[in-house]
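Open question from group meeting: does this chain pack into something compact, or does most of it stay loose? Before anyone orders reagents, we agreed to write out a predicted structure and look at it together. Recording both the input and the output here so the notebook holds the full record.
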Amino acid sequence: MKSSLFSLLLYRIPKVFCRKVSFLMSLSILCIIVYVGISWLHDESYNQTIAKVLPENTRVSACVLPDLKILAPGIMSFITKTAPVQCSRAAETNWVYVENGTYRISRKARQRHTKIHCFYVPILRGIDDYTVRLGSKTDFTDGDPLKFDFSEVHCTSPTTGENYTNLVSGIAYNASLFARVNSTPRGRNAMGLTVLMIGYDGVSRLTWMRHLPKTYQYFTKNLKGTVLEGYNIVGDGTTQAFLPILTGLTEEELPESRRGRPGAVSVDGFPFVWKDFKRHGYITQWVEDEPTIGTFHYRLLGFNETPTDYNMRVFYLRKREISNMFQSFCLGSMSNHLNQLNWLKEAFVLYPDKPKFVLGFHNEYSHNSQYTTLQNADDELTKFLKYLEKDGHLDSTVLILMSDHGCRFGKLRETFQGKLEERLPFFSFRFPEKFQKLYPEAYTNFLINAKRLTSPFDIHATFMDMLNYKQSETEAGGKLKRGISLFEEIPLERTCADAGIEPHWCACQKWERLNISDPDVTEATHEVVSTINKMTKEKRDKCSRLTLGRVISAIKMSPDNAKVLTFEKSADQDGRVPKFFIEEKAFAGNGFFYQVTVETQPGLGRFEATVYQSHKEKTFKCSDRSISRINVYGEQPHCIMNALPHLRPYCYCKLQRKS
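Structure tokens returned:
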């Protein structure tokens, strides 16, 4: 009997009690996981530089970049889902599109309307880089070849009585271009690979991961692309990002080309890298979608001649002229973004076996949107990458996905992490398999460099290396000692000063937080406001004199035994890089850098500035280039908006427009 009862208990324990124990243990484990996850998200130490415990003889990089979290607590409020752009919501599917250099009338349109009569009007370059003109109208039918790259199409259906008007973009067959490419000899040391660079305005490395997750996943996992984790900007804005990439030089080192400046000339004479590629038998193509804020048109004089074999500027100028007929972000039933990708695609369709230098830069989704609309690019860009891979175009193409800088304005930028993300934009490369086999040393060095400090100057040096492998070191990187090809191993000892990155932009500095009532902070902030007022002094009749409203934050940098940039003369308000030389001496014995964030009156402008304090002279100095406007200025500078665009961030007009 006792034996039977004991056996019954043994039988009942696992059936009843053990189920409860198992449930409680599972619940405990889940709570632990949630607790650890929440603790990780709220551990602010992850937002600071992480010092790893390494063996005594381990070599450590001179630049230790901050370990930023993709889902940091202070960033979470900016990660929101937005309603997708629906270009087909109020419009019939586009009647006309371009495919492989020909006009096509869609099947849906032909089925619905039966008979369709169409003509096109060419969109041509006007008298300068800011105007367009229209050509003569010409009838066309389905399958007719393009005679011009861009046109306005008008169609009517005698069957239904409906009309259709839209703009189309494509690539017209060019016999002389084919002849030039076929007759141009390749350089003996040239790699012969096509370059496709697709960029988006104002997207940090982490923002790309947050808002373009499908693209990021496909690029890094499926295509095995590599992201440059230490890519650091060298100046403020798109122009300061692209000039070093495309010319290897800073704006100040190039001819004066700013609007309204004495002796200013167009940018045609700049040594753009696409000229080098063209000399090596490449077809060149460039598109930028917002003509009024173009890289070389917002402050600069633009081009007297079309700079690349194919250029989309006239298309967007015409679209802006008739913008009232389009829904936001749309070109009829197609998004502007997809239309831009399709135009890039046409170069690969029309010239599949020819080397190309292709640059596409998109502003509309991310320039002023705080990234809410950037999410709309994710599916379209991923699909485009899949097309390139499926059709074999990536077999001979270096694919670059990139941005110029992180967010420059708004609430995200005002956070500490936002400040650092501005300095660390997304930049990545994907090389074809044959490159890895033909150039194993270059590819190995590239993978090493992906974890080290890099800059726009290095991208230019890499392009030059592609055209003349291992022969262009002195020309590309030796002259100013700042640009290093990514195919050469970048030294661990490299500092921001070595790379031509000023302290204001360097993301691998060590900063100490200060009390905003500190006397040195007070002097530093007054120097900032004084510098801004000097910048607008020439227009004091229109621009208000600013005063300090409040100090928001202050930090101090003092990196012992670091190389620092000693400037031969100050930078200017356009963000142009000052002339400098690298001085080999211990920084700590000479002074400190303060970085302060202030709000000014009138207008509540917020500025972040880096100020240098000299130990010897006990003075504070702030260069124009080291001041960033971090909130939107809107119409505040309307009185000088067009005449002096370089003063827009700093001028609060005395007479404000009524809202």
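Observations to bring back to the group:
Residues 49 and 66 are 4 Å apart (CA to CA).
Residues 2-41 form the longest helix (40 residues).
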